[in-house]
């Protein structure tokens, strides 16, 4: 009888160690204590067949073991209930006194994305829509509808990449085609900005990339003047650079605006002394702009006698360089982690 009890105890302890949830615990309890066939119940029943002294001795032992089993079952029940509430097993419980693990590096936005997000916030706060346009563009939208016919010399300064066997298509050399698309789609009045990649067949240097970013702006309404244009340009530069900047406005030629301007800012990388970022002139050509040419308004499907507008094409990578004091544009797409980690 004694051996039988010890064997039973071993099996019970082993069974208890394997318990992972309430269902398994119920099964174990039934196995040992069910009224009809429980293994412990059977032993208790068998006690009555023993003679006086033996019944006394084994009865005591069996009762002790039975109580021990029941206590262990109760303990296990409480443990499982706790795990259910916290979602953690007892070994996983949170130790608030443990020292903090070293902070691992989080990812962050690329400086171009930071500047574009900020520009978009700035313009949406002034009531502009944020639009998108195709990078692979038709010659019609990239040039012709912008008053740049096939033989116009302006095409040379915007030489880009053409698609083999599809000479009508090109990688857009600027974001201005979206001016036409926007007027055709939304009509007037309209206030919109478009940010995105542009492509040019360019010999790269400290301020030129073959793939670069622009942000186009377009406002078309009744009675739009140069004063409106200058007001928005100033808001833009101060909002993004968060400091006073010296600017100069000079005449600029773009077939799709009349009159056209180049808004330059004093180079913040060298404070006007001259460096690679400003082509050693002390000024950075940042914001070409002007009043939308009447022909372009017509290509957009609107009446130039009724509507006028202004447009600008911000070279946003050059603005990123000015904001962060980057002396060479090629760092921005270099993928060099040592460079990117600084932002
Ligand atoms: C244009 O692209 C006109 N579409 C801008 C415009 C829009 C004028 C609306 C008037 C009205 P431009 O070729 O100058 O203009 O380019 C505009 C800006 O893009 C430049 O001032 C410069 O900051 C940037 N940019 C041009 N080419 C490159 C290049 N290869 N790498 C980096 N930035 C460039």
Describe the SSE topology.
Elements (H helix, E strand, L loop, with lengths): L1 H16 L4 H12 L5 H8 L5 H35 L24 H15 L3 E3 L4 E3 H4 L11 H4 L4 E2 L2 E6 L5 H10 L3 E10 L11 E11 L4 H16 L5 E5 L5 E10 L16 E10 L1 H6 L8 E8 H9 L12 H4 L3
Parallel strand pairs: 1-5
Antiparallel strand pairs: 2-4, 3-4, 5-6, 6-10, 7-8, 8-9, 9-10
Helix pairs in contact: 1-4, 5-11
Bound molecules: adenosine-5'-[phenylalaninyl-phosphate] (FA5).
Rg, nearest Å: 39 Å
Query: Which ligands accompany this protein?
Result: adenosine-5'-[phenylalaninyl-phosphate]
Overall pLDDT score = 91
Bin the helical content: 40-55%
The appropriate CATH architecture of the largest domain is 2-Layer Sandwich
Whole-number tally of structural domains:
2
Tell me the name of the CATH class of the largest domain: Alpha Beta
- CA(first)-CA(last) distance: 78 Å
Detailed description of the structure:
The chain is of the alpha+beta class and 343 residues long. The protein has two domains: 2-86; 111-340, Bira Bifunctional Protein, Domain 2 (BirA Bifunctional Protein, domain 2), CATH 3.30.930. It contains twelve helices and ten strands. Strands 1-5-6-10-9-8-7 form a seven-stranded mixed β-sheet, with helices on both faces. Strands 2-4-3 form a three-stranded antiparallel β-sheet. Strand 7 (247-251) and strand 8 form a beta hairpin. It is elongated and about 120 Å long. The two termini are 78 Å apart. Bound molecules: adenosine-5'-[phenylalaninyl-phosphate] (FA5). Residues 174, 176, 200, 202, 208-209, 212, 214, 254, 257, 260, 285-286, 288-290, 311-313, 315, 317-318, 329 line the site of adenosine-5'-[phenylalaninyl-phosphate].
């Amino acid at each position: 009888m004694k051996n039988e009890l010890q064997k039973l105890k071993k099996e019970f302890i082993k069974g208890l160690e394997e318990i992972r949830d309430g269902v398994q615990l119920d099964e174990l309890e039934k196995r040992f204590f069910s009224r009809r066939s429980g293994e412990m119940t059977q032993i208790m029943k068998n006690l009555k067949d023993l003679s006086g002294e033996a019944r006394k001795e084994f009865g005591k032992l069996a009762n002790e073991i039975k109580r021990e089993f029941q206590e262990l079952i109760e303990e296990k029940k409480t443990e499982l209930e706790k795990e259910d509430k916290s979602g953690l097993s007892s070994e996983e419980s949170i130790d608030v006194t443990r020292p903090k693990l070293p902070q691992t590096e989080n990812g962050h936005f690329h400086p171009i994305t930071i500047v574009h997000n900020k520009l978009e916030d700035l313009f949406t706060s002034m009531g502009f829509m944020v639009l998108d346009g195709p990078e692979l563009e038709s010659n019609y939208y990239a040039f012709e509808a912008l008053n740049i016919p096939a033989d116009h010399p302006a095409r040379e300064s915007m030489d880009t990449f053409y698609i083999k066997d599809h000479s009508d298509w090109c990688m857009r050399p600027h974001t201005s085609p979206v001016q036409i698309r926007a007027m055709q789609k939304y009509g007037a009045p309209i206030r919109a900005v478009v940010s995105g990649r542009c492509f040019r067949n360019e010999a790269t240097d400290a301020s030129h990339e073959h793939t670069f970013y622009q942000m186009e702006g377009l406002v078309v309404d009744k009675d739009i003047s140069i004063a409106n244009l200058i007001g928005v340009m100033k808001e833009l530069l101060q909002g993004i650079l968060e400091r006073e900047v010296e600017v100069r406005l000079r005449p600029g030629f773009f077939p799709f605006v009349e009159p056209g301007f180049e808004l330059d800012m004093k180079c913040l990388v060298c404070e006007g002394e001259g460096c690679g970022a400003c082509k050693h002139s002390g000024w950075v050509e940042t914001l070409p702009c002007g009043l939308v040419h009447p022909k372009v308004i017509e290509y957009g499907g609107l009446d130039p006698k009724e509507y006028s507008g202004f447009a600008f094409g911000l070279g946003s990578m050059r603005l990123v360089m000015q904001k962060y004091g980057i002396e060479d544009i090629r760092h921005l797409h270099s993928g060099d982690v040592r460079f990117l980690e600084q932002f």
